[in-house]
Each structure stands twice: as C-alpha cells, then as structure tokens.
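Each lists chain and fold; for instance:
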Amino acid sequence: MSEYYLAVDGGGTKTDVVCVDEAGTVVGTGTSGPTSLTVTAIGAASFNLIEAVRVAIEKNPEINHFKKVVLGLAGVDTSEERDRAEEIFRRALSHYQFDEFILLNDSEIALVNGSDSPNALILVSGTGSICFGKNSNGETARVAGMDYLLADQGSGYSIGRKVLQAAVKSFDGRGPKTYLEGLVCEHFMVPKISLLKQEVYNPDLTKSEVARLSRLCTKAVEAGDEVAIQILDEEIQEMVLSVATVLTRLHSGENEFEIVFAGAILELENVAGKVREQLSAQFSHLKFVRQEKDPVYGAVKLALQK
C-alpha cells in the first residue's frame, strides 16, 4: 500500500500544494489563495489550504492519510507564531490523518528547494521580504520577515506603497511629475488622484493588493520614468543590505556561498541583475542559484527525508 506525503507553500498571494508518494512521484497538485495569517483571516486561510489539498488529491479520493505534512508558511518567525499557526492548520486538515506535521517559515523550504549546499542563503522578495541563511558550522541568521509595519523593505508591498505616495505627490505638486500618476488612476479606474481615497480606504487595501501595484512601478521604469527608477533602486539597496547583513554573520569568505533568489520581484532580471552585481562587488566566492522548481518542492524534499 502506497504512502503519501503532502507539501505546502503557504504565501501571502497564493498557496501551492503537492502530493507525492514514497518514491517522490507527484500524485497531484493544487493552488488556491493565500494562507499567510498576516495577510488573510484564519477562516479564509484555512479554507484556502483545504481547497488546495482537495484539488491536489481530487483524482485520488481514496487518499485520507499522509505519512508527513510539511507546510512552509509566510509570516511565522517566532515559536509562538509557529505554535498558533500549527494549531490552526492541524485543525483545518483534521479531515485527514497524518503521522507527522512540520511547519516552517516559507523561506526555509525555499532555501532547501534552491540549494543543497551547507553554506547558503535565500533572499525572498514577493508580497513581503525576508533573508535567511545557514552555514556549515550549523549557524543560521535571518533578517526582516517582521511584516509590513516593522520590515518588508525590498518587497512588492514596499514598492507598491511608494507608488501610491509618488502618485499623490505628483498630483498635488509636492513631488516631480511621474508616469505613475496616470498608471495609478488607470489601475483604480478613477479620473484623477483626488478620488483615490475611496478606493484605498473603503475598505483598506490589503497587503497583497498594495504589493500588486509594484507592477505599475516596473511598467513606469520600462518607460524611463525617473521617479519609478528611483523607487526600484531604493528597494534594490534594501535587498542588498539584507543579504550583506546575513553574509557578514555567516560567510567566512573562504568557502563558496550560494545565494538563492525567490519571489516575483526577483524574477525581474533588471532587479536580480543589480542585486547580483552589487553583492559580488562586496563579497567573494558567491554563487548565484536560480530555482529550477517552485518553492513548494523544497517542502517535498523535506517531507521525503527520512
């Protein structure tokens, strides 16, 4: 009788689920909305997890037992947060049986997915941002990852928030005219910025909705807009600072250290290229690794480990 393993990447924008058998063969996959508890309510997060699991195993309805569940979740950085999240999602999956349930920060499964090296770190820049690393001495280091009011510099949210502010400054004369003003009006389908309050505050934009405005910054950069270029450069500096801080703690400079990039912002080559260039100028023996698979497959690797 086959044994099954469940791997989950629970982010601030979406949730990916992969079900595999003991040989690592993919049985099914599922995708749903966010499960990060810093982005969505407990009920919605639980529903999204249940739905993604349902889709992943819908062609195998006989599956009701998992040897191991590994959940990488955005926004869990303390033991208290992990305990709370584990209680919530164990309850959400109570319809199924599982022998072992492991909950980690999503940066940890993304690092395992991207690198097998004992000396490696991952920089995540998606809805939020975090940098996490480890070395062959067993030391680890993490920076940021404290959500949007305390951290999240170098993230889609941070870019999106600056886009909104730059558009308002452009409109009222406190800042230079920027292409972002028109793009924001177009995005919210309002004729002018003075009508933006209703769209932003009633109800308040979610973290994910603000992060999606980072696309407007990218579009304006491509058009040569100076304000957008400055916003993106500032966020790139924050990414470099995060990695440099972790490297200073973990990297001796003698052994090769692998750097893994993850998240939608770092999928932009003009962003990733500048981060690579600036880090290479500061540190030696760096190897930049591109993830070949989605981060959820890091959870698959951990689930299959004996």
